[in-house]
Amino acid sequence: MACRAGCRTCDLDRCGRVGRVTTLDGLIDGIVDTHVQQWNPRRSPRLGRRMSRVQRVVPRFGDRVFSVVSSQAEREYLLTPRLVARAYEPRQYSNDVAAVPAVCGVPIESVVVTDAYTPLDEGEYPPDDHCVAEVDYLLGLPFGTASAPALGAMMVRGNPTLDGFGERLDSQLAVSDRIRGIQINASRHPDPKVRDGCQTDGLLATPAFLRGMEAVAGRGLAAEIFVYSHQLYDVVSVAREYPDTTIIVDHLGCPVGAFGPVGLRTGTTAAARADILRLWRERMTSLAAQPNIVIKLSGLALPVLGYGSEPWGNIGARDTLTHMVGPLVKHVVAHFGSSRVMFGSNFPLDKPNASFEMVVGSLLDVLEPWGEHVLRSVFRETARKAYRIGD
Fold first, then answer.
1. Amidohydrolase-related domain location, by residue (predicted)?
2. Using an 8 Å Cβ cutoff, are 180 and 245 in contact?
C-alpha cells in the first residue's frame, strides 16, 4: 500500500489515513511466519492439562480460577488462560492476520508451526504413539485452504539427552517430510518467580545433550532453541560442537525484565534493566560470531520482557512497541546481517500485548531504513532457507 503520492513509505496522516505504512508489495509475494503455535484442548494429544480442563469444565469462571490455581510465573508468562484453554488453529490464526495486508501490502504466505504449548520436561516423554499423533494432528489442520496460509514446515519438540531420542525422531520423520528440526525449551531463570521451561540448569552445555545432538545433526535437521538471555553462551557451545547444523535462537534471546519488573526481583530498577540489556548485547554479539546461528525476531511482545501483567494488554500503541524493541532489533540486524535474521509472530502467546498487525508494523518501522534487501530477507527469504521451505 503506497500513499497518494505513490511513494513506498510515508506518514499517511498527510494522506488522510492514520499511521506509517511500508509496503512489501513488489518485494515479496507474502510473509513467512516462522513461529506459530497450534493446539486444541480436545484434540492435541499432549495438551489436556490443568488449564484447558479448568476452562472446558467451567468456561465462565476459567479466568478467575486461573489466578488462583496457577503460579505467578505462569500468570506472568501467559497473562490470560484463554491462550491455552481454547483452541488455536488455522481459523483463529487467519482471523488474527486478516489485517496484515492493510499494514504492509502482502498477506502471510506460509507458516512454520510447532506442537502444543504445554512444556515437556526433560525427565518425561510422551509415548511413541503420541509423538506421531502430534505430527498427525498438525498435518490434519486446514492450512492452505480458504484464507489460511500454507504449511511451510514443522518443528517437533525433543530432548537429545533422553534414551530413544533418535528412534522417536525417525518415527516422526516417517510421517511427514515437512519436519525440519527439533524445538528445545531449555529456559531456566535464577529468579524463582520466572517460569522455567526445563528442570536442568545448563542443559545445553551438558555432555549428554551435546552427545545427543548427534541424532539431530546426523539427520540434517535444525535445532531451534529457547533460552533466556543469561543462558545464551550455552547456545555457543552447541553451535561450535555442530558447526554444520543450523541453530535457531527464538525470541531475540529473550532478555527477561528488560522493560520492567518480572518475577520476584528481575528488572525492578532502571539500573537493573540497563544491565540486562548490556549483557544481552554482549552475548548476542558473541553469538553472531558463529555463522550457523540464526536469530528469530519473535516474541517481541512476550510478557516476560517486562511489559506488565494486565491480562488485557500492556503495550497499547505501535509506536510504543517500536520504541522499545527497535534498539534490540537494530543490534541483531547489525551483527548478524539480514541473511541470518527472520520474522516470527509467536502467536498466540504474544497476542494479549499486541495485535499481529502491530508487531508487523513495528518491525517495518524499524527495518525500513535498512532497505529492500533487509525487508525481503527478514520477512521471507531467510526463513525459506533456514527451514528449507519449498524443498
1. 176-389
2. no
- Domain-wise residue ranges, the chain: 13-386
pLDDT tens, position by position, 308-334: 988 889 999 999 999 999 999 999 999
Cα–Cα dist 55/84, whole Å: 9
DSSP secondary structure letter of residue 203: G
Contact 90, 138 (CB under 8 A): no
Total number of residues shown for the chain: 391
- The residues facing 155 across adjacent strands are 181
pLDDT at 205: 94
- pTM given for the model: 0.90
The SS3 assignment for 133 reads helix
Q: Determine the topology of domain 13-386 in CATH.
A: TIM Barrel (3.20.20)
Q: What is the largest CA-CA distance in the chain?
A: 63
Instruction: Note whether 228 and 188 are within 8 A (CB).
Output: yes
Q: Give the whole-angstrom CA distance, residue 314 versus residue 330.
A: 23
How many other β-carbons are positioned within 10 Å of the β-carbon of residue 282?
12
74 is written with which cell numbers?
505462569
Helix (H, G, I), strand (E, B) or coil at 160: coil
Could you read off the pLDDT of 151-191 as tens digits, one per residue? 999 999 888 998 899 999 999 999 999 999 999 999 999 99
Q: 281 phi and psi, to 5 degrees?
A: -60, -45
Contact between residue 340 and residue 295 where contact means Cβ atoms under 8 Å apart: yes
Task: Answer yes or no: are the C-beta atoms of 151 and 143 closer than 8 Å.
Answer: yes
Q: Is the pLDDT of residue 292 over 80?
A: yes
How far apart CA 20 and CA 299 sit, in angstroms, is 22
d(CA 12, CA 19): 6
